[in-house]
UniProtKB/TrEMBL annotation:
CDD domains, A to Z: HMA, P-type_ATPase_Cd-like
Localization in the cell: Cell membrane
Keyword match Isomerase: no
Protein name: Cd(2+)-exporting ATPase
């Protein structure tokens, strides 16, 4: 939705029956002309219209009567689509085809000169091409040249020169190609509609002592939702009572169920597999994670990819050029080289048909809409065709370390003590660290709690943070320091060689070393490590295999960073970086490689995500910041969807290139047949319809790509 159409003053409607992007544009223009409408915008990919102003469904359907469009309120239950073969547009094709066959048979029996076959062909043209002629003649009166205009001129021209049978065949085959285009777009849109059906429309709510089934629109924040085993959650919320495993595949794409207990966040559309859960509702139905996903997917499908913008611009000049070429083919040979008028007008009409840009126009949108829908079903939210294409061109992917390649939960791995017991020194360190905001402090406090140490009972005085180096505090009249090895090099002038070697060996193993000591001695080394995600090594290996260079960005020291980088297999490691340094580094990578992605948590890495070609946020499920700021959100808190996304994007680029090349190539070959005079309307329509069919089927192959 454009900025002029904001959520507050716009009503959305679902539209059924769009056959092409051009028809969607015509419908949009018709709606804008209705009295009381301030603005309107059609999303062809999602098959929706957004209207600002006062309008009724009857008025909308009247605006779409040229294509028999059906309109319903966005919030209404989805209506069952008629089977493809039963649709009204297709029934007209059957009647037209039967009339064509009967007329052909009569022509064989009575002779082509008989008026009965001609009447049959004329009826076949009128019934099958009625809608086409309305659009084509309207466009012709405005000097707008699109596929409907070209086909209208060609069919009327065929009738004028007496080629009734071929004119009727052109109508039927064009109608079939349009039906196939409709079918392919409906197939692509089903990826969104299947998302809408994930969450139930009603939920069991307890208010006071009464339990009642309530429609999701009427459920309020803080309502108590009861979800029994085997039921799906209708709303987002927080577990207040109960423990169960939830299948979150609908949101995150992960099929492995996740255990949820008290205070855990849960999402609409997920399946409760085992226990009874009592959940406090935290969001209204329009704000749930699932609703946001659906909204963002629809927005993404409306956004034109760069190649689509190119095709649309190309078609704008290509179509009038084909009309001029057809006129030249029809007129020049009879005028200058004594050619037969009938023969060359026929060749000109055939050139019009073969030049019809159906396949070219549909070459990109079907591929983009299909791919974005497929990605959403697999737990990857791609915000638009532009990011889909950019991902396919990526040369480098930069990863934040903490919380991306690692779990972001540091744990104490080694405690090396000097002169006192481990428990005593851990107790002192935890007592000091409880006043710190540093992430590593939580690891030491957890260690003390695991060991059952009473660090809270220790009286601490004169707590002070030493910026960038550590902290100090007084306990029992003695000042203790906790910080980096460099802090103690300043305090003691130097660290003993055997202690230096121990620090180096711990850092080389990928651990961060914290030192506890006084102004005169070192009491302990505490090594903390951030656990590497199980999927990181495999994901990095897959990306390197795909030819994408991988870089790790971290604020850690060089030794620790390189040890972790080596474990996961990244090509390059950049250590000791502040947030502004990451931003600078991403800019440098873009200057060098042009196409660069940044993978982070969507919060701390926001500047670097914004500066990259494609910003990828981890754990988009339930994280509003990730959904809003990133270009691509991996809905699960794992990286294993990243190689799939790169492969899907590359496949999209390949299919779009194949489609454009094929649709233009087949037309070029057919037009060359004009030179020896071999081009017929039969060849022309089969070239056009064949190209449209193959381009559509080629795009639908994207539905089969799995993780």
């Amino acid at each position: 939705m454009s900025e002029s159409l904001t959520k507050q003053d716009v009503k959305a409607y679902r539209v059924q029956g769009f056959s092409c992007a051009g028809c969607a544009k015509t419908f949009e223009n018709n709606v804008k002309k209705i009295q009381g409408v301030e603005d309107a915008e059609v999303n062809f990919g999602a098959s929706k219209v957004y209207v600002k102003g006062q309008i009724t469904i009857e008025e909308l359907e009247k605006a779409g009567s040229f294509e028999n469009l059906k309109v319903r309120d966005e919030k209404e239950q989805k209506v069952d689509h008629e089977p493809f073969w039963k649709q009204k547009e297709n029934i007209k094709v059957y009647i037209s085809a039967i009339l064509l066959l009967v007329s052909w048979f009569l022509g064989k029996q009575l002779g082509e000169e008989n008026f009965l076959p001609t009447i049959g062909y004329a009826l076949s043209i009128l019934i099958g091409g009625y809608t086409l002629f309305i659009k084509g003649l309207r466009n012709l009166s405005r000097l707008q040249f699109d596929m409907n205009t070209l086909m209208t001129i060609a069919i009327i021209g065929a009738a004028i020169i007496g080629e009734w049978m071929e004119g009727a065949t052109v109508v039927i085959l064009f109608a079939i190609s349009e039906a196939l285009e409709r079918y392919s777009m409906d197939k692509a849109r089903q990826s969104i509609e299947s998302l809408m059906d994930i969450a139930p429309k009603e939920a069991l709510i307890r208010r006071g002592n009464q339990e009642m089934s309530i429609h999701v629109d009427d459920i309020e924040i803080d309502d108590m939702m009861i979800v029994k085993p085997g039921q799906k959650l209708a709303m987002d919320g927080t577990v207040l009572k109960g423990t169960s495993t939830l299948n979150q595949a609908a949101i995150t794409g992960e099929s492995v169920p996740v255990t949820k207990t008290v205070d855990d966040e849960v999402f609409a559309g997920t399946l409760n597999e085992e226990g009874l859960l009592e959940i406090s509702v935290t969001k209204r139905v329009e704000d749930t994670t699932l609703s946001k996903i659906i909204h963002l997917v629809e927005e993404a499908q409306a956004e034109r990819a760069p190649s689509q913008a190119f095709v649309d611009k190309f078609a704008k000049y290509y179509t009038p050029a084909i009309v001029i070429l057809a006129i030249l083919i029809a007129v020049i040979p009879p005028l200058f080289i004594g050619g037969d008028w009938n023969t060359w007008v026929y060749q000109g009409l055939a050139a019009l048909v073969v030049g019809c840009p159906c396949a070219l126009v549909v070459s990109t949108p079907v591929a983009v809409v299909t791919a974005i829908g497929n990605a959403a079903k697999n737990g990857v939210l791609i915000k638009g065709g532009v990011y889909l294409e950019e991902t396919g061109n990526l040369k480098v992917i930069a990863f934040d370390k903490t919380g991306t390649l690692t779990r972001g939960v540091p744990t104490v791995t080694d405690v090396v003590t000097y002169s006192r017991s481990e428990d005593e020194l851990i107790t002192i360190t935890a007592a000091i660290e409880k006043g710190s905001q540093h992430p590593l402090a939580s690891a030491i406090i957890r260690k003390a709690e695991e060991k059952g140490l009473y660090y809270n009972d220790i009286a601490m005085e004169e707590f002070q943070s030493i910026t960038g180096k550590g902290i100090k505090a007084k306990i029992n009249h003695e000042t203790y320091y906790v910080g980096s090895p460099s802090l103690f090099e300043e305090l003691h002038n130097q660290i003993e060689n055997d202690q230096k070697e121990k620090i180096t060996s711990l850092q080389t193993a990928g651990k961060t070393v914290m030192v506890l000591g006084t102004e005169t001695e070192i009491l302990a080394f505490i090594a903390v490590a951030d656990e590497i995600r199980e999927s990181s090594k495999e994901v990095i290996s897959q990306l390197n295999h795909l030819g994408v260079e991988t870089v790790m960005l971290t604020g850690d020291n060089q030794r620790t960073a390189h040890a972790i980088g080596q474990q996961v297999g990244v090509v390059d490691v950049e250590a000791g970086l502040l947030p502004e340094d990451k931003l600078t580094f991403i800019k440098e990578l873009r200057e060098k490689h042009q196409q660069v992605a940044m993978v982070g948590d969507g919060v701390n890495d926001a500047p670097a995500l914004a500066a990259s070609t494609v910003g990828v946020a981890m754990g988009g499920a339930g994280t509003d910041t990730a959904l809003e700021t990133a270009d691509i959100a991996l809905m699960s808190d794992e990286l294993n969807k990243l190689p799939y996304t790169v492969q899907l994007s590359r496949k999209v680029l390949m299919i779009i290139k194949q489609n454009i090349t094929f649709s233009l190539g087949i037309k070029a070959v057919a037009l060359l047949l004009v030179v020896p005079g071999w081009l017929t309307l039969w060849i022309a329509i089969f070239a056009d319809m064949g190209a449209t069919l193959l381009v559509t089927l080629n795009s639908l192959r994207l539905l089969r790509i799995k993780k």
